Amino acid sequence: MISLENIRAAAENLKGVSVHTPLMKNENLSERFAAQVYLKREDLQPVRSYKLRGAYHKISSLSENGAKSGVVCASAGNHAQGVAFACRKLNINAVIYMPVTTRAQKIKQVKLFGKEHIEVVLKGDTFDDAYNEALQYSQTKNAVFVHPFDDESVISGQGTVGLEILEDTKEPIDYIFFPVGGGGLAAGVATVFKQLSPETKLIGVEPEGAASMKTSLENGKNTALTDIDKFVDGAAVKRVGDKTFEICQKLLDEVIAVPEGKVCSTILRLYNEEAIVVEPAGALSIAALDLYRTQLEGKNVVCIVSGSNNDITRMEEIKERSLMFEGLKHYFIIKFPQRPGALKEFVNDVLGAQDDITYFQFTKKNNREDGPAVVGIELKSHSDLGTLEEKMKNKKISYQHLNEQKELFTHLIL
Question: Residue 395 catalytic?
Fold first, then answer.
């Protein structure tokens, strides 16, 4: 277990490096949930995520010989930026392994923070691939491996978030929600709260498509997932850390999973209502509030906004996932009769006045009575789906609804 003394030492070590980020009451969320909802704005760190804390504390604690050998890490983005920032600050060289699939924006940011002190190496399709490459490099080059979460110094650094929250609030905190990827932030913050605010309910939040901590807790042992949805890239790992699992198993009250579409709706709402830009992992804690609505009334609630490294090119995908989650965007395979006027009849007689075709893919086939088209339709209200399907049935239109057919949807649409 991590000691509170180690976390306090990390806080001293981080002075003048990481920012003591604000704990801000959010009026809209407070009104929506009839509670006092506060946001811990780790998106305002110099590297726009809390990852700087653990990375700097780990690297700055290296011996002189360890520093001379350089460091190596693996990351899908935020940890890499923390390591890069720390290495430039400490004048230490680093090799940073990132998946080939990492977005260009994150690679550019890593190079910007590290300058001449870092080398970025792209290897593999997933974090786990990059992780294995980084471990091999560490062994062959004798470089210090800086783990993104399963390291006592890293956990202690992340735990300083919890110290700041308790320092900045005068009222007892009833609930705190934090994202869970590998578990470093959860383990550190939980260590602080269980000792200094034991009555606070500690709720970890994972993306539904990568619920590795939740699965492990349910199984009673650290369990690797065979396949994950990598959309919430800052919190999508196949296997959490052994140290972090042990701590979270003992300290967390609950870990819940939130659908990726719900995360997307939260991102858009924060942007439109609060002018706050967050990455998918940064929205997890707020996205979970709806699942606790009845318990939160009248309570003091803290959500850790973990980061804001969001690539603007992802916004169309975020909007699409949000619309589908809200039941406003639907895709169908529709068999149209191969005769003039068939599509016009569909538009006039089946679509509602406010329904909008946003996607249409059709190739006319010879010697066939009908031809399938993939059609995307955006509705004004989720309740309009029943009316749309009823009209298609009345017109004897043969169709398949693709939204719930994941493999077919992925093949035809994504």
Answer: no
- 339: exposed, middle or buried (Cβ count in 10 Å: 0-12, 13-18, 19+): exposed
Q: What is the pLDDT along the chain (414 residues), one digit of tens a residue?
A: 799 999 999 999 999 999 999 999 999 999 999 999 999 999 999 999 999 999 999 999 998 777 888 999 999 789 999 999 999 999 999 999 998 988 888 899 999 999 999 999 999 887 778 999 999 999 999 999 999 999 999 999 999 999 999 999 999 999 999 999 999 999 999 999 999 999 999 999 999 999 999 999 999 999 999 999 989 988 999 999 999 999 999 999 999 999 999 999 999 999 999 999 999 999 999 999 999 999 999 999 999 999 999 888 889 999 999 999 999 999 999 998 888 888 899 999 999 999 999 999 987 665 567 788 999 999 999 999 999 999 999 999 999 999 988 778 877 776
Q: Kind of pairing, strands 254-258 and 201-207? A: parallel
Encoded tokens for 147: 């783990």
List the catalytic residue out of 51, 106, 262, 329.
51
- Residue 286 structure tokens: 């707020």
Q: Cβ(182)–Cβ(149) under 8 Å? A: yes
- Exposure b/e, 368-400, CB count within 10 A at least 16 = b: eeebbbbbbbebeeeebbeebbeebeeeebebe
Cα 334 to Cα 314: distance, rounded to the nearest angstrom: 29
51 assigned to active site:
yes
Segment (H or E) for 325? helix 315-325
Active-site residue identified among 265, 306, 308, 322: 306
